[in-house]
């Protein structure tokens, strides 16, 4: 009985982090759209500063990189959630060798990608 309680708590943690990453990605998308609007408005002005536009483009690139990293985190959390479900509540779907293999590969690939030095 204790194992089931701990398992449910683990699953809630995975779901929490998945939802958190999607919320942060949405926030970053809004920020990126604002920056793109600022670039367009500065391009329309005759006295636009080239340095400011370059800085805005760098910030947009950073946001895009963060989005990729968050997607990798979501992929890892979903794969780990599948693996946790198998350990807690075995059933024919999640117990399938291919499903576990794919989940493990996604988890490993996403973890490797997140830890790769830039």
Automatic annotation (TrEMBL):
InterPro entries: PEX11. Its main location: membrane. Keywords: Coiled coil, Membrane, Peroxisome, Peroxisome biogenesis. Residues 32-66 form a coiled coil. It comes from the Eukaryota. It is found in: Peroxisome membrane. It is a multi-pass membrane protein. Homooligomer. Interacts with ARC5 and FIS1B on peroxisomes. PANTHER family: PEROXISOMAL BIOGENESIS FACTOR 11, PEROXISOMAL MEMBRANE PROTEIN 11B. Belongs to the peroxin-11 family. Involved in peroxisomal proliferation. Promotes peroxisomal duplication, aggregation or elongation without fission. This is Uncharacterized protein.
